[in-house]
Amino acid sequence: MVEASEVPEIGSKVRLRASTWNGEVDLEGILLAPSADAHITVKLVNGYNVSHPLSAVNSVEVISVAESGSVSEDEVAVAEDESLPIVFILHTGGTIASKVDYATGAVTARFEPEELLGAVPELASHARIRTRKLGNMWSDDIRGRHWNRMAVAAAEAFGEGAAGVVITHGTDTMHLSAAALSYAFSGEGGVPAGRIAFTGSQRSSDRGSSDGAENLIAAVHWAAHGPTPSGASDSAVIVMHEG
After folding, report:
1. Where in the chain do CATH 3.40.50.1170 domains reside?
2. Pick from 41-45, 105-109, 224-228, 231-235: least confident
3. CATH 2.30.30.520 residue window(s) in the chain
4. pTM over 0.90
5. Distance from CA of residue 180 to its chain's centroid?
6. Order of strands, edge to edge, in the sheet holding 13-20?
7. What confidence tier does 17 reach under pLDDT thresholds 50, 70, 90?
8. What residues contact 76, with CB distance under 8 A and at least 6 apart?
């Protein structure tokens, strides 16, 4: 049994041995804030969190200690390729533009270009990224006024020289918002000044199986290099992985 005073600092990389109904197990990962009193919680390398009561933990070995200050992922400064088009990422909610704070286990929204590129550095090879936060809400709470804000923000982005816009959105009502923007820009026969792509994530970004990065990369590539919109059928599209 491990005493509470023996638990390493949150954010440390640890290896622990715990007793379960199926015998002893060895686990390795990042130590998080405990999910309950007298428990130890670890984020495994596959992205999932596991918790065990301290009474069932036989040993804890520190592999590496947490860095002082923030223990979240490092921000990465990435030089822009001036030959690439500009793409604005407009965030309305969901987890696709978020990453894990390993000190708490929470998923926190990130909107600055350096932070997005730190989480998904592949974006820098497709476009020069700009970001704007429109909100952070469940997609079920999206209403007509939010569609208006998306349309205005997209038009402003095009006015600032963007080749395309990616709108990150919760998946439940993404299709409704995409239709609304298609009508807004092409309902009377017009076309937007650039490409508009909606994208989201089926799985939280703190999971190893998250599809968020894959979807975001694909949406940014389409917004930067896709076909020129021709009318209502492609004024606003949804870019998500298949399967």
Report:
1. 86-238
2. 105-109
3. 4-64
4. no
5. 24
6. 49-53, 39-44, 23-32, 13-20, 57-64
7. very high
8. 114, 117, 118, 121
User: What is the biggest distance separating any 2 CA atoms in the chain, rounded to whole angstroms?
Assistant: 71
Q: Which fold has domain 4-64?
A: SH3 type barrels. (2.30.30)
56-92 per-position pLDDT tens digit: 999 999 998 866 544 444 444 567 899 999 999 998 8
Q: Which contacts of 181-185 are long-range, i.e. CB under 8 A and separated by 24 or more positions?
A: 181/147, 181/150, 181/151, 181/154, 181/235, 181/236, 182/232, 182/235, 182/236, 183/232, 184/147, 184/148, 184/151, 185/151, 185/154, 185/229, 185/235, 185/236
The one-character DSSP state at 55 is G
Contact 222, 197 (CB under 8 A): yes
Q: What are phi and psi of 95, to 5 degrees?
A: -110, 0
Please tell me whether residue 77 adopts helix, strand or coil conformation.
coil
Q: Does pLDDT of 241 surpass 70?
A: yes
* Averaged pLDDT for residues 152-167: 97
Domain 86-238 has CATH 3.40.50.1170: yes
CB 81 within 8 A of CB 124: yes
Distance CA 212, CA 120 (A): 10
Distance between the two ends of the chain, CA-based, in angstroms? 44
